[in-house]
Amino acid sequence: METLQFISIACAVGVFILLFIKYKKHVFFSGVISFLAIVIFGASIYLYGSIRTYSEKTDGAKQNVQAVKINEQKEKLEIIRIENKVLIDAPVIKQFPELPRGCEVTTLAMLLGSAGINVDKMSLAEEIKKDLTPRTVKNGEIHFGNPHKGFVGNMYSFNEPGLGVYHEPIMELAESYLPKKMVNLSGQSFDELKIPLSDGRPVWVIINSQYRELEDSYFQIWHTKEGKVRVTMKEHSVLITGYDDQFVYFNDPLTGIKNKKAPIKDFEKSWVQMGSQALTYSY
């Protein structure tokens, strides 16, 4: 926009200079042309400054609104008392037999159900964004989809290659059911998850199916369109429903067990190893 304004001003001034040269022997015309050139140049500078000032004010206003929203969210979190132990009665849904690799969308169905949104896991499986990149091996390197971009592989059968999906596409899908209410806790500390749990809200997470930190031998590098991604075939998703000083409790779509428990320290290490991915909702 600024470049276009500059070009317009330069062209206008150039035209008046040419007219001035053409009519410089005519005192009256040359005077009028000079006057108009000065007026237009001055008006253009004034208009440019006004637009730029307005743009800066608008950007500042947007930043202020965002800062207010962040502060409001922090204030809301601060008034929630962190309990020593929590156990939430949330829906439990089993992913089998329909979705052998559908733990993420099945866990999302549990999370949405806890928020009062009844949606079938099969509908979520159909709606989740997919990365359709086929699996190939070139020079010993695996080329496949990116779980940060969409579900990778076949969700419905182990007879074809596949893996799962990470929090970004799940967050996008969840927001279509709970607009402006989803909360992304990914990248936070494990203690931050205790805030919504203490408020009666379960948490969707990505861990592994052994609920502990895995050795490096369980992981492999995939080459995707966006770059390298480190993945494990043990990747899993559960709905955290509670905790105490020794255990974390969760609804497990793999087994269909409600409030299954695992040592909290091992579970936390598993969660961190898988990228500290977590989602919940606000009221």
Automatic annotation (TrEMBL):
Keywords: Membrane, Transmembrane, Transmembrane helix
Annotated transmembrane regions: 6-21, 28-49
Keyword Membrane attached: yes
Residue ranges constituting the Peptidase C39-like domain according to the UniProt record: 89-253
UniProt-listed CDD domains: Peptidase_C39A
Database matches in Pfam families: Peptidase_C39_2
Name this polypeptide is given: C39 family peptidase
